[in-house]
Write a structure and sequence with these properties.
mainly beta; Nucleoside Triphosphate Pyrophosphohydrolase; nine-stranded mixed sheet; three-stranded antiparallel sheet; about 15% helix; globular
Length: about 190
Amino acid sequence: MKYCPECGVALTEQSIQGRGEAVRCAAGHLSYPPGPKILVAAFVSCGDKLLWMKRGNPPRAGHWAIPAGFMESGETLREAVARELWEGTCVSLPAEAFTPYMIGSINFISEVYIGMRATVTTEDCACGDEATDVGFFREEEIDWDEVAYPSANAAVKTAYREARSKRFGVYHGNFTRELDQLDLVWQPGD
């Protein structure tokens, strides 16, 4: 950021009260550089199938992904995931239907990734504004070469395994350019 978003004057960097680097313009407006973005994903299962959408928008338009998007100001995590699910697949679930699945970081794009899970009893879905195709698929039906974000494959394959076994855990993910790792943090009965 080079110019003040409030008045347009050039910004200068400075450390403010130990909070790291900030920028201030000559008029005194203070801004902090943008931090990591929060990405929410909806892992929705129907039996042993998961809901997928073919992305209609860049990046990776034309590739398949679990419904996901960025949290907006003023939303709770559950509200954000319910909204993103609706926008991509026209599946309407109340925010309370979602439970935590995994949290992780994608360090090479500065994102925090939060997956929430929900279960439905029917495969009713339709293309929303952000998708060109949607559907529930078993793991063996997925063409893994057409997946939009292979860095999330560990999370998706774990969700499939848990949908089949009906034993659900909560995970921490580490997703770097070199690593696609999902570690169990908690499982009922532990």
